[in-house]
Amino acid sequence: MQKLIIYGPAKLMGEIEVEGAKNAALPILTASILAQNKVIITNIPDIADVRHTIEILKYLGCKVLFENNTVVLDSSSIERFTIPPEYAKLMRSSVLFMGALLSKFRRAELSNHPGGCEIGQRPIDLHISAFRQLGIEVFEHNNRIMCRCDKVKGSEIFLPIPSVGATENIILASIFCDGEVVIKNAAKEPEIADLCHFLNKLGAKIRGAGTHIIKIEGVKRLKSEEVVHKVIPDRIVAGTYLCAVAACGGEVVLKNVFPRHLDSILHILKSSVCKIKELKNEIWIKREERLKGGQRITTHYYPGFPTDLQAPVCSAFAVASGVTIIKETIFENRFKHVPELVKMGADIHVEKDIAMINGVEKLRGCKVFARDLRGGAALFVAGLSAQGVTEVMDADYIDRGYERIEEKYSLLGAKILREKGE
Ligand code: EPU
């Protein structure tokens, strides 16, 4: 296991380029098995989850080259429609291969319930029920899910929860549907809009992406031209930088960001004494005085405050003045970073889905354990602001979603080492 050793406290200064979005890159790579020709996808983050997705693509029979944040993919020799358990267990997003494989072969098998960070139960009932509404037969046996159909039928699907994964899976399965599939109460996350943008370049006919009604008009076949696509910037990685500056102080310019994707966190930080300027693809942030707490933050579906930033924002407000209250409404078990922050001297009490943060002057470095991706990033942020040395154990979780995090923050003046942990 990897370990990150952070020598705090850091003051973050300088400019940094934000990487491409994990949660857009993963479905886009999955969708690329449908392309008629070669696809070239740029701004792909070099993170563990992308490497795992590429392993699955190669297993299925695709030819994939991944260099300098660019994937060149040729799916003409794809021959398999089964995702074996060792791959399914690696990531939650392995479930998206179901939709893409159904469009490709009208058959798909996932040999295990999809893995991913343990932040809640994370069922896939909405995916399965939606598939059935599309006329797809779904069999579940011994944790294995098998799907097949003759044709995906046009239908209207209402999602009781605007699930990101279920919305993506329905879109992927419906590309060649008979007539039109309409998703009501669809998730509106920018990563879904990016996936649809990519699929439309391939020749799909999708309207309404980014809104709560998405319409997929079935096409007979996709275009035969080569497609080039650039993945959108990662708003969660960008938000983590903002939380780090809020926690540590300093002055940073984030480049390659879409500020409008970050409205909810920018609003909170602006009301907490951070100075912020938004330019077209840049955000400038400066924090001099102590961060001011006293906010009530509730996680929500986009454009609400993202659950993926709940943990990093917790670390920032752990050292703010006053009491900050955070309510987590999306996942049932997403406060695993709190006991670790408490070890560092934070004063945080969790009751059910609410964390009450009584800001302290300083955190102290110590040995802490990452338990999931964003919780790990929160400990990293806490380590940057803390006095002394913080060892973040099991940093492999962080590597799932942040590209060489220690190198990036070193460019902003932080002192961090990476070691193989015991
Ligand atoms: N849900 C169900 N049934 C389903 C699907 C979802 O009950 O069939 C519930 C979930 O248990 C959860 C809620 O609906 O309580 C929302 O889940 P959603 O399906 O929207 O999440 P996801 O697709 O599993 C994606 C991201 C997560 C991010 C969430 C919410 C990817 C690969 N993952 O997960 O990202 O937290 O949306 O925005 O896109 C991360 O990057 O660290 C991460 C966990």
Short description:
The chain is built from 14 helices and 24 strands. It is α/β, with parallel strands linked by helices.
Describe the model:
It is a single chain. This protein is of the alpha/beta class. It contains 14 helices and 24 strands. The chain has helices spanning 22-31, 48-60, 85-88, 96-105, 125-133, 164-173, 190-202, 235-248, 263-270, 310-318, 337-343, 373-385, 396-399, 405-410, and strands at 2-8, 12-17, 39-42, 63-67, 70-74, 82-83, 107-110, 137-141, 144-148, 156-158, 180-184, 205-207, 213-217, 227-230, 250-255, 275-278, 282-287, 296-298, 323-327, 347-351, 354-358, 367-369, 388-393, 415-420. The strands form six sheets. The chain has a four-stranded mixed beta sheet with strand order 22-23-1-24. It has a four-stranded mixed beta sheet with strand order 2-15-17-16, covered by helices on one side. Strand 4 and strand 5 (70-74) form a beta hairpin. Residues 22-23, 26, 92-93, 117, 120-127, 161, 163-166, 187, 307-308, 330-331, 373-374, 401 line the site of uridine-diphosphate-2(N-acetylglucosaminyl) butyric acid.
- Small molecules bound: uridine-diphosphate-2(N-acetylglucosaminyl) butyric acid
Total helices: the number is 14
The radius of gyration computed from the alpha-carbon positions, rounded to a whole number of angstroms, is 21 Å
Unreliable stretches (pLDDT < 50, length at least 5) are none
Largest sheet: 4 strands, mixed
Strand order of the largest sheet: 22-23-1-24
Mean pLDDT: 96
Roughly how many Å apart are the termini? 7 Å
* Percentage of residues in helical conformation: 25-40%
What class would the helix/strand composition place it in? Answer: alpha/beta
Overall 3D shape: globular
Total beta-strand segments: 24
Strand content: 25-35%
